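Collaborator request, handled under Task 6.
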Amino acid sequence: MEPNLREPNVIVATSPCRIVPRPRGSHRGAILRAAAVLGIGTVSALPAAAQGYAAKQLGDWTIAASKDGSGCFISRSFDQPGSTTLLLGMDRDGSNHFSVLNENWSIRPQDRLKLTFRLTQGGYPNHQAIGIVADGKQGFVAAFDPKFPTSFAGSKALHIDRGTTPVARLPLDGSGAAVAELQRCVAAQHGPAKAAASDDGIPRDPFAERPKPRRKR
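Structure tokens returned to the collaborator:
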């Protein structure tokens, strides 16, 4: 029986995000960073595990650390037409990036999309996403506010729509334990912290002192 999803009640009041020359808004930078992690183009959907954290399997969910130690990912595949894959990443700086991929979709890299995400615990209408291609599948990547992983963990299902067209209906059983392990994985990472940057990629203080690399003994 399909879960009864409530009307969205966790909506962040932010300006719509547009990927055009010299745009404004913090979400654009977050989406571009997310796209850079997953890659706008042909990439591997799952990052190589970082040293110090072995990839784990919790039910249908896989948890792995990013290679540079800046964060971690959880992923799950669904036995649906086109073999849908879901991936949620979280970085040490608190940012997150969410991606869904499917073999049957015709999304092109850098396509700009407005999608509505409805969780059992909240929703995000007309949210900005960017098209990507990964592991032979087409899909999208999107960045959300810091509350998204908590809402994701407490939800039984995720519905995604493009206007009136349904995109995906994904069960999220086990997501609570997966997100809890994701947070433990992130806390264990010791990669370089990301410098705060404006939307054009320039750090707020490009002359700030950076931590010195540890010497090998």
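The cover message to the collaborator said: "The longest strand covers residues 122-134. The two ends are 59 Å apart (CA to CA). Please let us know whether this matches your experimental observations."
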